[in-house]
Write a structure and sequence with these properties.
alpha+beta; about 210 residues; 2 domains; three-stranded antiparallel beta sheet; wza like fold; five-stranded mixed beta sheet
């Protein structure tokens, strides 16, 4: 009798573990769309960027200038101009306006080096990634590109329970992604495009 009960208990434990393991591989949110959809994305200057300013026929005013942590930059003849949150073209027009006090009809071109961007356009990875971090968004960036940069997930990650936090039409939404299927099983259908500002959360597995 004891032997039978022991086998029954063991079978029940195995079934429970199998059931819970199966549940742990199921995304808990609606799946993220494979394509990020049509939307306009322009790179915005951010703190930490290096901005190359070229003023036509005025080399003494031109030069490379860093964007400070407060989002502003100082260049020749122009102090504390707001740079963060603007496209390079918008910043060039603002510099032209500021320089017009000293130069007649200045023509300015802005080139951005570094590509850090503002925080609200960066991709953040939290939880059980090998190297959780914030990364620069790049056009057409996908989940597998992101995983390469953060070194994949840890052995303790619930990869198929991972999810993306994304703001859509001004409202925060959550989308499930299948990291384990993508990384361990090579299921390319689990690869999805990312959007600027996405936050990927990789939770810890219970087993």
């Amino acid at each position: 009798m004891f032997t039978i009960n022991k086998h029954i208990a063991r079978a029940g434990l195995v079934a429970a573990v199998t059931l819970m393991a199966g549940c742990s591989s199921t995304p808990i949110y609606p799946p993220a769309p494979a394509q990020s959809g049509g939307y306009d994305w322009n790179y915005l200057v951010g703190p930490g960027d290096s901005v190359q300013v070229f003023v036509w026929r005025n080399p003494e005013v031109s030069g490379a200038f860093p964007v400070r942590p407060d989002g502003k930059m100082t260049m020749n003849l122009v102090e504390d101009i707001q740079a963060s949150g603007k496209t390079p073209t918008q910043l060039a027009r603002d510099i032209e306006k500021a320089l017009s006090k000293y130069i007649q009809e200045p023509i300015v071109t802005v080139i951005v080096a570094g590509g850090v961007g503002p925080f609200d356009q960066q991709i953040r990875v939290l939880g059980e990634a090998a190297k959780p971090q914030a990364l620069n968004y790049r056009e057409k960036m996908s989940l597998i590109d992101l995983m390469i940069q953060v070194g994949g997930i840890t052995d303790f990650a619930a990869g198929n329970k991972a999810y993306i936090l994304r703001v859509v039409d001004g409202k925060p939404q959550q989308f499930g992604v299948r990291l384990e299927d993508l990384l361990k099983n090579g299921d390319i259908s689990a690869n999805v495009e990312l959007r600027p500002g996405d936050v990927l959360v990789v939770p810890e597995s219970l087993f």
